[in-house]
Each structure stands twice: as C-alpha cells, then as structure tokens.
Amino acid sequence: MNAAVDVKSFGKTAVLMGGKSAEREVSLMSGAGVLKALQSKGVDAHAFDPAERDLSELKKKGFKRCFIALHGRFGEDGTVQGALELLGIPYTGSGVMASAISIDKVMTKRVWLAEGIPTPRFLLLRRGAYEQKQVIAVPDDLGLPVIVKPAREGSSIGVAKVKGYSEMKEAVDAAAALDADVLCEQFIAGDEVTCPVLGTGDQARALPVIRIVAPEGNYDYQNKYFTDDTKYLVPCGLPEGEEAAIQEIVLKAYRVLGCRGWGRIDVMIDGTTRKPSLLEINTSPGMTGHSLVPMSARAAGIGYEELCLQLLASASLDQETARP
C-alpha cells in the first residue's frame, strides 16, 4: 500500500470483534490487536462488539467502514456482511456469497471438486437423519484414522481424530452438538501447511506457505492459541517447486469461491505421493499473537500494522464490485 495514503480518509472505523460464535474468545484477541495497530497508524478506530451493540448503531454513530475481526458464525458466514451491505458501510474481507459458502466446509468442497481442486474424500451426516450403524460404518469407506468435525465451526472447535470404530459415536455426537451437519473426512498423513492470500481477482497474490508442526500432530484449539509447543516454519522448507505449486492451487481455490480482500487456506500434503489436498478456507483469519496470516506477511516483508492498514484500505461492498 502506498505509504502516502491519508488514513484520515478512512473515516471513523469500527473494528468488529467478539460476537456470538464459539470463537468469541479468539475474536476478542484478534480485534484487540487490529484495534491497537490501526490506532497506532492514526486511524480513528473503535472497538465494536455485535454481541453487545446493535449493528444499526454503526450508521447512527457515523462509522464509515468496518474491519471485520469476527470469526465463525454471525461474523464470517455472510450474515454480518449482508447487514453491512444494507447499511452501505464498506467492510474488509469477502462478500455475502463467498463468506456463506466458505464457512460451510461441505459446500466449499463441492465447489472445489466441481473445479477440479483436490480435497480429501468425505461423508456428510445430518443431525437426526443418520442411524448409529451408519456412523460406525464411516471408517469402512474413509479408512482410519478419520477426521470428524462440525461443518460450520472454525479454530478446530469440535474436531476429533478418530483412530478406532469405538470412538466414532462420541466424536460424531460432539460435532453434532455444535452443528446440524457433521463432516467425516479422510485423514491425509503428511505435511500440514497453510497459505494466506491477499487481494481480489487477478490482483490476488499468495503469501509464503507456513508448515505447521504440532505436538503429536495434534493441531487443535489449545495448540493453536494457548501453547508455544506448536512450531511454524516459514520458510516452509518444502521440496523445491512444492511451495509454488501450493500457492498456485490456493490462488485458484480462493478465486473460484469469489473471495476478496484476504483469506487463508489449509492444506495437507500426502507424505507418500506429495499431492496436496485442500481442507478449508478461512475468510476472516485470526490476527492474534499466534495467528498465521501476520506471520506469513512478515516473511513477505509486511509488518502487522501495515497489514492491518492494507486490509482496511481494501474494504468494499458487493454492490460496488457488481456495478458495470
């Protein structure tokens, strides 16, 4: 971003943080970091928690744009984006449709598969519509271990790695308590990586790939946010050519979903074939001290404060991008 940009032109800015989702705690940490960064750059930025204040206040209080630091439902799923469209207040990140599709891991997979983008095999169980014999039979199709997760949660909430048939029921019940749709996914043994993207359309670019090495391969909620035991390798140290190939497929996956502004795609690389399989996309990634987009951006020479400014500068509305 041009250093000469007048931050005053952004106007009064709301950092949307907290919210009602299971990721509220992480969102508050992300929002606090973004708020401090924007204020340090001279932006007239203020915290705004939609769980405690009605969104209509944004218009009444004269806010001119929003930095969405919400994660999960009611923040990353197209709902708050739709409200901001109606209010006419530009916001960071993807629009209504891309957000709604991307929050749903099953819908994301269906779009990717239609476009020839590799993703692990899966089965969908709908709460109340499956029998226990179907649950127990999942590993017959997908093998063991199998990953069980809610279709529309983030931050590894409700995710279980099932190693035996006897563990299936408990894992599915736990995921079903969080979401009506339970995703059972083939486990890919190999390297776990993630790749952030900045920008929109042809201008979008992939940032450096990060390789994640978690304790015992368990990259769960605790190891994501509250321990220092997980190792994040950037440069990622992958074999020559692999990082570029992952960046290329991640960019395609981002674009076919219609994402804009920024995002982050998680990928597993098969340890035997070295083929990548895309797991999911985050359209409002974390911005905490443990978060991966700032880490990757730093490796590309973009500091945290500059990243926040770039993202705020990219705030827009669907209705703007749809005009001829």
Automatic annotation (TrEMBL):
<keyword id="KW-0573">Peptidoglycan synthesis</keyword>
<dbReference type="GO" id="GO:0008360">
    <property type="term" value="P:regulation of cell shape"/>
</dbReference>
<keyword id="KW-0963">Cytoplasm</keyword>
<dbReference type="InterPro" id="IPR013815">
    <property type="entry name" value="ATP_grasp_subdomain_1"/>
</dbReference>
<dbReference type="GO" id="GO:0005524">
    <property type="term" value="F:ATP binding"/>
</dbReference>
<feature type="domain" description="ATP-grasp">
    <location>
        <begin position="109"/>
        <end position="313"/>
    </location>
</feature>
<protein>
    <recommendedName>
        <fullName>D-alanine--D-alanine ligase</fullName>
        <ecNumber>6.3.2.4</ecNumber>
    </recommendedName>
</protein>
<feature type="binding site">
    <location>
        <position position="282"/>
    </location>
    <ligand>
        <name>Mg(2+) 2</name>
    </ligand>
</feature>
<dbReference type="GO" id="GO:0071555">
    <property type="term" value="P:cell wall organization"/>
</dbReference>
<dbReference type="GO" id="GO:0009252">
    <property type="term" value="P:peptidoglycan biosynthetic process"/>
</dbReference>
<keyword id="KW-0436">Ligase</keyword>
<keyword id="KW-0460">Magnesium</keyword>
<dbReference type="InterPro" id="IPR011095">
    <property type="entry name" value="Dala_Dala_lig_C"/>
</dbReference>
<keyword id="KW-0067">ATP-binding</keyword>
<comment type="similarity">
    <text>Belongs to the D-alanine--D-alanine ligase family.</text>
</comment>
<feature type="binding site">
    <location>
        <position position="280"/>
    </location>
    <ligand>
        <name>Mg(2+) 2</name>
    </ligand>
</feature>
<keyword id="KW-0133">Cell shape</keyword>
<dbReference type="GO" id="GO:0008716">
    <property type="term" value="F:D-alanine-D-alanine ligase activity"/>
</dbReference>
<dbReference type="InterPro" id="IPR000291">
    <property type="entry name" value="D-Ala_lig_Van_CS"/>
</dbReference>
<dbReference type="Pfam" id="PF01820">
    <property type="entry name" value="Dala_Dala_lig_N"/>
</dbReference>
<dbReference type="InterPro" id="IPR005905">
    <property type="entry name" value="D_ala_D_ala"/>
</dbReference>
<keyword id="KW-0547">Nucleotide-binding</keyword>
<dbReference type="InterPro" id="IPR011127">
    <property type="entry name" value="Dala_Dala_lig_N"/>
</dbReference>
<feature type="binding site">
    <location>
        <position position="266"/>
    </location>
    <ligand>
        <name>Mg(2+) 1</name>
    </ligand>
</feature>
<feature type="binding site">
    <location>
        <position position="280"/>
    </location>
    <ligand>
        <name>Mg(2+) 1</name>
    </ligand>
</feature>
<feature type="active site">
    <location>
        <position position="23"/>
    </location>
</feature>
<dbReference type="InterPro" id="IPR011761">
    <property type="entry name" value="ATP-grasp"/>
</dbReference>
<dbReference type="GO" id="GO:0005829">
    <property type="term" value="C:cytosol"/>
</dbReference>
<feature type="active site">
    <location>
        <position position="291"/>
    </location>
</feature>
<dbReference type="Pfam" id="PF07478">
    <property type="entry name" value="Dala_Dala_lig_C"/>
</dbReference>
<comment type="function">
    <text>Cell wall formation.</text>
</comment>
<feature type="active site">
    <location>
        <position position="155"/>
    </location>
</feature>
<keyword id="KW-0464">Manganese</keyword>
<keyword id="KW-0479">Metal-binding</keyword>
<comment type="pathway">
    <text>Cell wall biogenesis; peptidoglycan biosynthesis.</text>
</comment>
<dbReference type="GO" id="GO:0046872">
    <property type="term" value="F:metal ion binding"/>
</dbReference>
<dbReference type="InterPro" id="IPR016185">
    <property type="entry name" value="PreATP-grasp_dom_sf"/>
</dbReference>
<keyword id="KW-0961">Cell wall biogenesis/degradation</keyword>
